[in-house]
């Protein structure tokens, strides 16, 4: 985030705070309950948006050296990420070309080759078939060169390994993130590591979880026992960068900041910045760490969520990061409980408009971005 952008975002919020006003969109709006429960809508979102955009499959530090691998499930597809001897990370379906057995159990490690536990067909770190017991006699019609593991589109950039499940290899797979690329450069997430992580299974639609971060109207109420007192009441702003959203959530300390003397990077002392990388990856940028909120929608009313604290491990001890992560869990846990509270009513057949006030106009923008991607 450029210094000028930081200054103007904070100046606008400082002015609003000083005058007792709030950041408001031009109009209120809302959405029907249907979009959060409809299996057809969910399938459309999976096909045209979630599986067609970069999914943050791993932080680069999870594949630290040549030979590192991570076997995981991405949106229902068992996936094997492997960093080859050439340093490049590749993604494959974690499926043996013989009879489809899962090649590597979920988890991570270091290996230059992958041997199937069923009949020992073996692949190298580029996914090429190497050998199998009695292969030539048993499979005279098969060519080893045709038995490459099924490759998925995979790019490593900005400190993350991105996988696109449905896409054209000829196009830039990260095109949708390019408009926010300068901000991602600024974050330098590649220099951080995972200091704490938690997996959650949340009974709510993925859009409710994203929406929870796009307004500060609820801070003083829903977060009154956690972060509420440290933030301005009902004050946040946002801007779109392509299909992505950058929200700025000012702390109360912003009131005393002399913007003329502000240096780059200092915005993090006075505001949280939440990047919503369309569709399901959010980066909550705090003073000395980033919370990576990675949602994996499984059903209209179910989302797996991986909550990761990214930080420079040497900047503080593990005890400090554990405590920090617990605070994050407690705070975001309040948001997730609310999302489940809404979803319970939607699943129970509630029929009404979910209203987005002018303070919550980021929710309307987010839903419009989703809807235009589905056309
Ligand atoms: S299924 Fe993998 S070797 Fe047979
Ligand atoms: Fe919240």
Distance between the termini: 31 Å
CATH H-level superfamily title of the largest domain:
Naphthalene 1,2-dioxygenase Alpha Subunit, Chain A, domain 1
Strand content: 25-35%
Helix content: 25-40%
- Ligand roster: FE2/S2 (inorganic) cluster, fe (ii) ion
Q: Would you count the extended β strands for me?
A: 19
CATH architecture of the largest domain: Alpha-Beta Complex
User: Cα-atom Rg, whole angstroms?
Assistant: 22 Å
Largest sheet: 7 strands, antiparallel
- Shape category: globular
CATH topology of the largest domain: Naphthalene 1,2-dioxygenase Alpha Subunit, Chain A, domain 1
The class by helix and strand makeup works out as alpha+beta
Domain module count:
2
Q: What's the overall average pLDDT, rounded?
A: 95
Q: pLDDT under 50 segments (min length 5)?
A: none
Task: Determine the number of helices (DSSP H or I, runs of at least 4 residues).
Answer: 9
CATH class category label of the largest domain: Alpha Beta
Strand order of the largest sheet: 2-11-10-5-4-3-6
User: Which sequence of SSEs, written as H and E, runs from N to C?
Assistant: HEHEEEEEEEEHEEHEHHEEHEEEEHEH
What do you see in this structure?
- The protein has 375 residues and is of the alpha+beta class.
- It folds into 2 domains: 3-53 and 177-374, Naphthalene 1,2-dioxygenase Alpha Subunit, Chain A, domain 1, CATH 3.90.380.10; 55-173, Rieske [2Fe-2S] iron-sulphur domain (Rieske Iron-sulfur Protein, 3-layer Sandwich), CATH 2.102.10.
- Helix content is 26%, strand content 30%.
- The protein contains 9 helices and 19 strands.
- The chain has helices spanning 3-19, 39-50, 135-138, 181-187, 206-211, 219-222, 267-270, 318-347, 361-374, and strands at 29-32, 55-59, 68-74, 77-83, 89-93, 107-110, 113-115, 122-124, 129-131, 151-157, 160-164, 193-202, 237-241, 244-250, 271-277, 281-285, 290-299, 302-311, 353-356.
- The strands form 4 sheets. A 7-stranded antiparallel beta sheet has the order 2-11-10-5-4-3-6, with no helix packed on it. A 7-stranded antiparallel beta sheet has the order 12-18-17-16-15-14-13.
- The longest helix is centred in the C-terminal third of the chain and has 30 residues, at 318-347.
- The chain is globular and about 80 Å long.
- It starts with a helix and ends with a helix.
- The model has no long low-confidence stretch (mean pLDDT 95).
- Residues 96, 98-99, 101, 116, 118-121 line the site of FE2/S2 (inorganic) cluster.
């Amino acid at each position: 985030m450029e210094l000028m952008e930081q200054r103007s975002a904070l100046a606008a919020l400082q002015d609003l705070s000083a005058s007792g006003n709030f950041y408001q969109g031009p109009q209120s709006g809302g959405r029907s309950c249907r979009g959060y429960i409809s299996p057809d809508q969910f399938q459309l979102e999976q096909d045209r948006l979630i599986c067609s955009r970069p999914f943050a499959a791993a932080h680069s530090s999870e594949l630290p050296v040549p030979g590192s691998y991570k076997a995981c499930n991405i949106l229902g597809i068992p996936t094997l990420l492997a960093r080859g001897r050439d340093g490049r990370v590749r993604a494959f379906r974690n499926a043996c070309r013989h009879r489809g057995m899962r090649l590597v159990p979920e988890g991570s490690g270091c290996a230059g080759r992958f041997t199937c536990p069923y009949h020992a067909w073996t692949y190298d770190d580029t996914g090429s078939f190497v050998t199998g017991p009695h292969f030539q006699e048993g499979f005279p019609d098969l060519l080893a060169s045709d038995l490459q593991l099924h490759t998925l589109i995979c790019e490593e950039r900005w400190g993350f390994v991105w996988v696109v499940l449905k896409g054209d290899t000829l196009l830039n797979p990260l095109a949708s993130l390019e408009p926010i690329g300068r901000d991602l450069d600024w974050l330098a997430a590649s220099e951080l590591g995972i200091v704490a992580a938690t997996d959650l299974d949340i009974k709510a639609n993925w859009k409710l979880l994203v929406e929870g971060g796009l307004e500060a109207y609820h801070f003083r109420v829903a977060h009154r026992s956690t972060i509420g007192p440290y933030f301005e009441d009902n004050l946040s702003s946002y801007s779109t960068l392509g299909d992505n959203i950058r929200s700025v959530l000012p702390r109360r300390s912003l009131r005393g900041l002399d913007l003329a003397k502000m240096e780059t990077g200092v915005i993090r002392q006075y505001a949280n910045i939440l990047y919503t990388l369309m569709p399901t990856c959010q980066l909550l940028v705090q003073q000395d760490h980033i919370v990576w909120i990675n949602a994996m929608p499984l059903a209209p009313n179910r989302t797996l969520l991986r909550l990761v604290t990214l930080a420079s491990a040497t900047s503080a001890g593990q005890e400090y990061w554990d405590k920090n992560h617990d605070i994050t869990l407690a705070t975001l846990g309040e948001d997730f409980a609310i999302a489940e509270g809404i979803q319970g009513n939607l699943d129970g057949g509630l029929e009404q408009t979910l209203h987005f006030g002018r303070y919550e106009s980021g929710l309307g923008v987010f839903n419009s971005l989703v809807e235009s991607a589905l056309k």
